[in-house]
Amino acid sequence: MTMARASANQKPDKAYPDRRDMLRGLAAGIGLTIAPGVTLYALGGAAEAKAPGDRVTSKVRWGMLIDVNECADGCTECVTACSKENGWADTGNPRTDAQWIRKVTVSDPKTGATQSLPMMCQHCAEPPCVDVCPTGASFKRADGIVLVDKHICIGCRYCMLACPYGARSFIHEPLEDQKPHAPRGKGTVESCTLCVHRVDEDRAPACVEACPAEDGGAMLFGDLNDPASEISKRIAKYATRQIRDDLGTDPGVRYQNL
Amino acid sequence: MARIVYKEIGGGVGFFGLFALLALFILTGLASAWYMEHHGHIVTGMTNQIVWGTPHVFAVFLIVTASGVLNIASVGSVFGRTPYKPMARLSGLLAIAFLIGGLAVLVLDLGRPERLIVAMTTYNFKSIFAWNIILYTGFIVVVAAYLFVQMERTMNGYIGALGWFAFIWRLVLTTGTGSIFGWLVARQAYDAAVMAPLFIAMSLSFGLSAFLLVILTAYGFSGRPLGDQILNRLGRLLGIFVAVVLYFTALQHLTNLYASEHAGVERFFLLEGGVYTQLFWIVQVFLGGLVPLALLYAPQIGATRKRITLASALVIIGGLAQIYVIIIGGQAYPLILFPGMEVQSSFFDGVVGVYSPSLPEIGLGGGGVALALAIGVLGMKVLRILPESLDDALIDPHHAPVQAAKT
């Protein structure tokens, strides 16, 4: 089973049975013994999950579908989960604190209709942040995840000016106790990584997993390139929106019932 | 034209006093940068909404001025205006000085300034910012070569060719600086092709003002002759540049006003933007545009030097206000996430950004200005940059002495 078919509706424990972990461990063991990398590919048929050392492929494009009708006003479980997972937090300085994901309330001034939705890096196919980054620190992985290379980010913040979604934060203060899987550093820019460390382990992002909405949550994660994935089926069946689609950035995050 | 003699400026008490004062500002700038880097940008007025603050205002102002100050040399070498030629060396020196001052501020405001080497070696060629790094460093090299062929008598034959090259380079450079904003599709205040020609016009205006203030000060301090006619000539040219900036500014806002999509951002800048609206109308347009125009084109107002000094100073103050409005006002106006809808969040979506300049930011910006001036002063001290005389009769072949005309 691929990650593509592992939607947010399936809790990770159910989606990835122990058998897979066992197979992967076995494959890794053999790979290490015989020929690292080569053997892992060879066993890909049995366990298609990306193993450490495997190249990220453009065959998949990770994306997310958010059902705004299911997203409760006032609920911030996704925000809390992201903060906990990636180690960013409210330090009492709201204007300078990092926020990888936030809840945005949208209301129509003419009708009064109001909705609430999570907003984070939209993982655009044509990301303006990547275009403007002078050093290439802002980059898009082959599988569509937009990231910041913390080693070559010079902290110029031009990407923050270029992002149409206000998705990026600059680290204004020294940091301590970072999560090993989510390195952060004063003077660099950061944003939602789509929980790349989890995705690479065939797990869904923390926000998706934490969403308490009924019927499996308001957030669905999966492979937009796989027509058989739950997310592809849903966006083929229902009308969805990409935020600021007029800008042509083709976000990987889509919103339903917005 | 009589032979122009270039001579280093003296090393009197006034010179060393000025240099000490500039050194003090430079040290303040360095201390500010160290403080910001040590504590992080939390000690500045910058936030996640206003990511570029006062240092960028100074840096962009200095860089724009650098390309404009070279115009004096270009008018001489490229457009063949003889009276400008004696001032070409100073023009080149100041261009390099202002650019270094601006770049120093830009680099020291980075989150990771020690990674400058990364910026110099790792390029994303789709980024106008990356192109600007090449354009800025290239500008220093090109103008240094231009200056060298002017000062080395045996190389004078290359002045024309290098003058053209430097002229084209500076036009591309300022286009690049304007396009840092012009090519930002996400922001209502930017995303406009007019930014590039607007920045070129601004560079001509700010650069000439800075040049005028430098020669008025340098010749005043050193007691060297500086003719009224050449000053008037430069003053009239400045008037044209000030008018062109006003023209492009009007074009920028009228184009936006025509599209209802941009009505919000225009209402913000022109009517309801508080400090940004005041800076726009009072400082940028009135004090930095209309008043200098009156001063430059109405000789009955007062003595030439006073009018031109005041006009130049006002253009620079108006210029700083204009860049402040563009950079900080442009960020303060909130991103449009959902056109036509109202938004709110913990990240200040839909809210006008709050920003006030902090002392370290002003210290760093001021340090950059001081660095630019110090390089200029030092250059004039050690190199033969400044003509011994810029007397009208000496530099202008068409000069007709007022006395002679009367008789």
How much helical structure, as a percent, in the residues of chain B? 55-70%
Strand content of chain A: 15-25%
Estimate nothing, just give the exact number of structural domains of chain A: 2
Spans where pLDDT lies below 50 across 5 or more residues of chain B: none
Which secondary-structure class do the elements of chain B indicate? mainly alpha
**Total number of β-strand segments of chain B?**
1
What would you note in describing this structure?
The complex is a heterodimer of chains A (258) and B (407). Chain A has 258 residues and is α+β, with helices and mostly antiparallel strands. Chain A has two domains: 3-45, no CATH class; 62-256, 2-Layer Sandwich (Alpha-Beta Plaits), CATH 3.30.70.20. Chain A is built from nine helices and ten strands. In chain A, a hairpin with a 6-residue loop joins strand 2 (101-107) and strand 3 (114-120). The longest helix of chain A has 16 residues, at 18-33. Residues 1-47 of chain A have low confidence and may be disordered. By secondary structure, chain B is mainly α. Chain B has one domain (13-400): Up-down Bundle (Formate dehydrogenase/DMSO reductase fold), CATH 1.20.1630. In chain B, helix 10 (263-272) packs across helix 11 (275-297). The longest helix of chain B is centred in the middle third of the chain and has 31 residues, at 228-258. The chains are: A alpha+beta (258), B mainly alpha (407). Chains A and B meet through strand 2, helix 5, helix 6 and strand 6 of A and helix 5, helix 6 and strand 1 of B.
